[in-house]
Structure formats: structure tokens, C-alpha cells
Amino acid sequence: MKTVQRVTNCILMDGDRVLLLQKPRRGWWVAPGGKMEPEESVLESVKREYYEETSIRIKKPELFGVFTIIVQDGNTVVDEWMLFTFKATQYEGESIVHSPEGTLQWFSKDDVAELPMAQGDRFIFQHLLYETTPMYGTFYYTQDYSLLSYRLHPEPTE
């Protein structure tokens, strides 16, 4: 079994706008973030990763979701990571447009659901953009990131 990777990301809200990163490989939009460094806390990681990808310093990020992501080949788990998702509404600095990780752009939160992204991310964004409570869950994907199944608490609302 592989080591479980720890990843942090943050949804930055400025009023009704949210800053997202488009990854070049699939063209999917994501919340900026990345892998935790050894001995780094989730809070230290999300602040560092967000700054590295956007040039913005987020202030007072709050943990709003913890998710297990499992990638399977048939019934075999080939990859697993823990995703710690934060939300922030305060920040310093201006976003760069082109990050080493892709293209950054502000969107109205009402437009986020229409963007190309991993299916599990749709549930995460829908909850974190419109609800005030944390979400927890597990997502199971194929190796090409087709969503197989998921468990979420609280369960998604339409």
C-alpha cells in the first residue's frame, strides 16, 4: 500500500466571487493548493501552497472539509490521499494570472457549477460556497478520475 499523501487547498471568497485555478492537464478548475511538506501543519501548508500558486496571502483560513480520495484499478486501491479544504474571505495581495500550476481567474460563485472539474469537486464547491458548516467524505475514482462512488456528511443538497 502506498503512503497516504496529505493535500491542502483553499476556496477564497471575495464577496460573491471565488478565485480558481485551471489545471492544464485536463482543463479542470480547482481550488489552489497542494501537497503538505514533512512536519508541516495543515494550516501552514494551506497558507504556503496558496501563496505559491497565487501570490495571495490568505488570512484566517478556516477548515471546512476533510476528504479521503481513493483511486482504484478495479478493486485494487492504487492511490489514496487526504484532502483538507479551507475557506477564506480575507487576504492580502493581487492574484497573478498565470501560475506555475495553471491559469487563475475570479468567478461568480453562481458560475462555478458550470465549470469543468472533477465530479467530487462539484459536491465540495456546492457545499462550501453556499453552506456554513464543514463537510466530510470519501470519494472513489477510477484511474482516469471518473467518479465511482462517494459518501458525504452532511449529504449534498440539490
Can you tag this structure with a few keywords?
single chain; two-stranded antiparallel ribbon; 48% strand; globular; Nucleoside Triphosphate Pyrophosphohydrolase; ten-stranded mixed β-sheet; 158 residues; alpha+beta
Task: Draw up the topology in text.
Elements: E1 5-14, E2 17-22, E3 29-30, E4 33-35, H1 42-54, E5 57-59, E6 62-73, E7 76-88, E8 90-92, E9 98-99, E10 102-108, H2 119-130, E11 135-142, E12 147-153
Parallel strand pairs: 1-7, 6-11
Antiparallel strand pairs: 1-2, 1-4, 2-3, 2-10, 5-8, 6-7, 9-10, 11-12
Count of strand segments = 12
Radius of gyration (CA) equals 15 Å
Helix tally? 2
- Going by CATH, the homologous superfamily would be Nucleoside Triphosphate Pyrophosphohydrolase
Structural class: alpha+beta
Q: Indicate the multimeric state.
A: single chain
By CATH, the architecture is named Alpha-Beta Complex
Mean pLDDT: 95
The portion of residues forming beta strands comes to over 45%
Tell me the series of helices and strands, N- to C-terminal: EEEEHEEEEEEHEE
Q: What kind of sheet is the major sheet?
A: 10 strands, mixed
Could you characterize what this model shows?
This protein has 158 residues and is α+β, with helices and mostly antiparallel strands. The chain has one domain (5-145): Nucleoside Triphosphate Pyrophosphohydrolase (Alpha-Beta Complex), CATH 3.90.79.10. The protein is 16% helix and 48% strand. Strands 1, 2, 3, 4, 6, 7, 9, 10, 11 and 12 form a 10-stranded mixed beta sheet that branches. Strands 5-8 form a two-stranded antiparallel ribbon. Strand 9 (98-99) and strand 10 form a beta hairpin.
